[in-house]
Amino acid sequence: MDDLRLLREMRAEVPDPGPEWLVPARARLLRRVRAWHLPRFGRRLLLAGALGGAASVVIATRPHEPGGVVRPATVRLDSATVLRQAAEVAESRPRRAVPRPDQWHYTRTLDKQANDDSGTTQEGWIRYDGKQTAGYGEDGRMHVSDVPPDPGDDDLSPQQYDAKLRRLPTDPDDLLAHVSGDRHWIDLPVEEGVKKNVEPPDARAFRVIFLYLERHVVMPPKLEGAMFRALMRIPHVVVDKDVADAAGRRGLGIRFDWGADPGTLSYHILDPRTYRYLGSRMVWVRDEYVEGDSTPAFRAGSVWATALLASGIVDRPGRRL
Is residue 319 part of a domain? Predict the structure, then answer.
């Protein structure tokens, strides 16, 4: 399976608490969490897209399984106040110039999986027009690769992706209506004998907004503000204080509260001053088992976290921010 398809499927499998969402995906998702590593340097849109999967995947737990239960100590903030302030800060940002086609989008990320505290740092470059990718190989040398045309809405170049983003409505209500039915990164895989699930509109809107927020290069300030104002209109959005990303940076943890007793808490993390995207964090609140195993695959208190360490436009591959 290619890496982009894997990332798309992980993003797609945002389950509703009901068994029709959770049970069919349990074993597959657990296997992916254990085994998943980002490529040395990816194809289109590179490493930033991986952050969406980390924060969006919610894994089921056995409801009455004996074993540890951990309730992280959190300080709940008023979500409307936080998101309104985020919108005002975003709207006050200076508008950035559109990158040239021959410039490069540089990304550096840190990934700490639940059963491995060592962490993996990845970096890569992709031309703004999507024609080439670049990264350092194991030999320590920079390798630049041509990217053949690859049709499909999920495989846009940064230039195409930004053009799509700039066509989004900047009225918060119109934007919310759009993302509630947006099919970008949404298609769910169909397995033999398993009915295709329909993602709840509120959950879809929350997830799609954060896909845009975490992956943009030069988002227009008015649109970024509209995204935070649209989040204000989604029920069950929770904001917790002092949630750490994989790099230990503490920020505002934004999550969608399903309204049921969760097996995990999954956050998108924003800088508390700039409201820029920092990374993601998923915390197991109870022991998690793979079907048929008596030993937990993940114990209560396990954490899977990511950090977006750098993301921006540079003039050539090898340049860092």
Answer: no
